[in-house]
Design goal:
Blueprint lengths: L1 H39 L18 H8 L3 H30 L6 H9 L6 H11 L6 H8 L16 H26 L3 H9 L4 H12 L1 H16 L3 H6 L11 H10 L3 H29 L4
Length: 298
């Protein structure tokens, strides 16, 4: 009897054995890092007193908000998150709708669109830096060759357009990833729904407008959430393309944290990371609530 009872308990908790490694990794590399960053943000921890940091209260936060680079970096981060989310999600929806149709070479185009997100962001950043050079870049050379000299701009050197250039490159990189998520949502829609619509005489536009798009909203919401979080955490593509320039035009919060760590002010960098984390929570929480209300009841 005891052996039978033990066997039932073992079967009940057996799945938890597989979850333990993931829980441990999550706790060590995520929970502990957040708690540690929170604690160190109130200290003068640096490479000069690495083993004996002292508590200084909110001095790091006061210095951060008093910094002339914080508000511009904050504005650039918000702008980057908004612009890239609109581009990545909007274009991904169009591509997913097109690639969901049956046509010759569909799988080839799916692979081509997805390919950029398999390449490292630093590699893409350096390649596009070469392509976008004002005098020797391939893009401006092509524009001049077809007589569009007026469109041959200093894409990364002009403070007015540099942030949008980086947004465009970041969006190009991740559109394929978002397309794959939305395409998966499209393919999960039962064919019976479309068959019923055709029997009722619905046109192609009516089917897309009243059936396809509402049913794929959960997938779209997932991509929006991922894009917003990714936009607030942007670092690598900015670092590789502009290093925050020109004149701070592409400076973002993650780059401020990197600069602080590079000079050894680890407590100050932790304060920046904490502010970044809180901003993401403040933005994402109401956004998720809003997006969930837009999802259809199925």
């Amino acid at each position: 009897m005891k052996k039978q009872k033990y066997g039932k308990l073992e079967r009940k908790y057996y799945p938890l054995y597989f979850a333990v490694p993931g829980i441990v990794i999550f706790t060590v590399f995520y929970i502990f890092s957040i708690v540690g960053g929170f604690i160190f943000s109130f200290t003068d921890w640096s490479i000069y007193n690495f083993e004996t940091p002292g508590f200084i209260g909110i001095e790091n936060f006061k210095d951060l908000f008093a910094s002339i680079s914080f508000l511009p970096a904050l504005g650039n981060t918000f702008l980057f998150a908004v612009v890239t989310t609109i581009l990545k999600v909007g274009i991904a929806v169009v591509f997913a709708l097109l690639l969901n149709r049956a046509f010759k070479g569909r799988n080839f185009f799916r692979a081509v669109i997805f390919l950029p997100c398999t390449i490292g962001a630093l590699v893409i950043g350096y390649v596009f830096t070469f392509i976008l050079q004002p005098d020797t870049g391939i893009l401006n050379a092509a524009l001049r060759a077809i007589g569009l000299d007026g469109l041959a701009l200093n894409w990364l050197g002009d403070p007015n357009i540099a942030i949008y250039t980086v947004c465009a490159v970041e969006s190009w990189m991740w559109i394929g990833f978002n397309t794959a998520i939305i395409l998966a949502g499209l393919q999960s829609i039962s064919s019976d729904v479309y068959e019923a619509a055709r029997i009722d005489g619905a046109s192609a536009w009516q089917t897309t407008r009243f059936i396809t798009l509402p049913l794929v909203v959960p997938s779209i919401n997932t991509t929006i959430t991922l894009c917003v979080i990714g936009g607030f955490n942007i670092f690598d593509i900015v670092m590789s393309m502009t290093n925050g320039g020109p004149n701070g035009a592409t400076q973002v919060i993650s780059k401020l944290s990197y600069d602080a760590m590079r000079v050894g002010t680890l407590g100050y960098a932790s304060a920046i990371n904490l502010i970044q984390f809180l901003l993401i929570v403040i933005v994402i929480s109401p956004l998720l609530s809003f997006l969930r209300r837009k999802e259809p009841d199925i």
